[in-house]
Amino acid sequence: MKLVLWDIDRTLVYTGNIDRQVYREAFTAVVGRPPEALPAKGTGVTMPLAVRELLLSNHVSADRIDTLADSIIEQLPQRLNAHRDLIAREGAVLPGAREALAAVHDNDLLLPSVVTGNLRRSARVKLLALNLAQYLDMDVGAYASDDAHRPSLVRIAQERAASAYGYVFNRTNTIIIGDSLQDVITGQQGGAQVIGVASGTTSAERLMAAGADRVLPDLTDTDQLLQLLTHHTTQ
């Protein structure tokens, strides 16, 4: 069995500016003024680190950052859930993603879950709103609410999957599918192979140069993806 760890944003779904709207709302509620700058898009940075970036870039004093960051992070999933209908209306499942998820889910040799920079509850909101959660065992996934350092999430997911399914998971049988340089770094440092997908803000060339084991232009070729997952991912 192989553990397949999907990234969410810009790999499976695109939710436009909804995350940034939620950052804006939470910052305003906690700090008492609207932010002048918001976190960069499509970087793959975990939400806790993005919140710290948000506070620093908006000139919040260093001695207040830890307390305010905790307060903002606590609010994010609830505020995102308040926009669940908006995600369902304006969010998009990326080309081929639903079919790819279904194919991986239906293959008895593959265990699909997630490793994501989203908080656990935020990830669930997005996947439920866009009707994708049924293809994933989200209980064995790993989230930014587990650790803000994204590479650490690989081991967390491997241990959860091992406990639930009775297999040992390591780099030889763990594969991340993601669109960002952070996904590649997560695999390299965390102990997983990486299939890059050039569906986000990072080109196929940059994903390959960063060390992805394979790179796909998108998820529309389900047969090719399954071949990579069930045979040899590494070059």
How big a fraction of the residues is strand? 5-15%
Share of residues in helices:
40-55%
CATH architecture label name of the largest domain = 3-Layer(aba) Sandwich
CATH topology term of the largest domain:
Rossmann fold
Q: Write down the domain tally.
A: 2
SS summary, helix count: 10
Arithmetic mean pLDDT: 96
**Main sheet?**
5 strands, parallel
CATH class placement of the largest domain: Alpha Beta
Using the alpha-carbon principal axes, give the shape: globular
**C-alpha Rg, in Å?**
17 Å
- Under CATH, the homologous superfamily of the largest domain reads HAD superfamily/HAD-like
Low-confidence stretches: none
Number of beta-strand segments = 7
Overview of this protein structure:
There is one protein chain. With 235 residues, this protein is of the alpha/beta class. The protein folds into two domains: 2-14 and 93-230, 3-Layer(aba) Sandwich (Rossmann fold), CATH 3.40.50.1000; 18-87. It is 48% helix and 11% strand. The chain contains ten helices and seven strands. The strands form two sheets. The chain has a five-stranded parallel sheet with strand order 4-1-5-6-7, sandwiched between helices. Strands 2-3 form a two-stranded antiparallel ribbon. α2 (47-57) packs across α3 (62-81), α3 packs parallel to α6 (120-129) and α7 (152-165) crosses α8. The longest helix is centred in the N-terminal third of the chain and has 20 residues, at 62-81. It starts with a strand and ends in a 5-residue tail after the last helix. The relative contact order is 0.17.
